[in-house]
Amino acid sequence: MSWMKDRVGRIVDLPVICLAVALVASACVPASEARQESEDTSSAIVSDTTLPAAILGEAGPPRGERVAYLPSDPATQGYVAVPEGEGPFPAIILIHEWNGLAERVKQVADALADEGYVAFAADLYHGQTGSNRNENVALMQEARANPGEMIANLDQAVAWVKARDDVSGRVGAVGWCFGGGVALSFGLDGVEHEATAIFYGSLIDDPDRLATLGHEVYGTFGELDNGIPETQVRAFADALQQAGIENDIHVYEGVGHGFWLWVERNPEAATGPARDAWRRLRAYFGRTLTD
Question: Where is 80: in which H helix or E strand?
């Protein structure tokens, strides 16, 4: 079990999250539970951590390639970025935000490839992307209406990466916003894999449901994202504790929804928490996929 301190120093245990299909207009929204002792304490820990250019808005064009991975649907094309060298490497499935498989997630795939992972960004919208709130909500609603189809899509993504000669066989998943909730649903209902990382995704509080997870879970949330109230996070924390699921979940002070993937929108507030979240993410994938 993983632990963190809230702002008054009380030790609490925080569990995992899953897709709450009922959330629509608010997209994937983060939680506010125990609060990280943010800038004062985390800056010293992460002062030597360099954030990937992808989340600072400074990355160049994606350098990987698009691939069709659903035999029945050639319009659905993922994006793969591969590390230098021969491998074998562990793999990470990336699950996009509510607007679809856009450039920012592809750039993060490149950053994870630089860390030594075959990074495969899945496409849950059949080649479509949204350019405004209405389009994003419509695409998200359509996908959420068929949760089994989303899980089958991600199962195929895992099969595609595992078929590669340069993949070790160990696979994790990471998602943001809408994709954060889907990542947890995939952890619960998808083909077996070794890691689930959620950035500001939706919550459940059923310990029997959470007990079906077979691996530690990572989660990062912002205090100022009010889509999931503290009461829900506490209920979730209790459920995860009852389920006996190890986790590394933090809620950072002074930041809101989307703070990690889009640091440039509020660099003064987001840079410190984003560095610490990146440090934790690297450590998490290191121990779940490579150790």
Answer: strand 77-81
At 228-262, the pLDDT tens digits run 666 676 777 778 788 999 888 888 889 989 999 99
Q: Residue 187's closest CA among 179, 109, 112?
A: 179
Q: How many residues does this entry show for the chain?
A: 291
d(CA 122, CA 272): 29
> SS3 for 248?
strand
Secondary structure class of 119 (helix, strand, coil): strand
Q: Under DSSP, is residue 4 helix (H, G, I), strand (E, B) or coil?
A: strand
Q: The pTM is what? A: 0.85
Burial class (CB in 10 A: 0-12, 13-18, 19+), 75: exposed
Domains by residue range for the chain, with CATH: 3-290 (3.40.50.1820)
For residue 175, what are its two tokens? Answer: 């998602």
Q: Which residues lie across from 78 on neighbouring strands? A: 67
In the block, which residue shows the tokens 């698009």? Answer: 66
Report the 10 Å Cβ neighbour count for 137. 18
**pLDDT tens sequence across 104-155:** 999 999 999 999 999 999 999 999 999 999 999 999 999 999 999 999 999 9
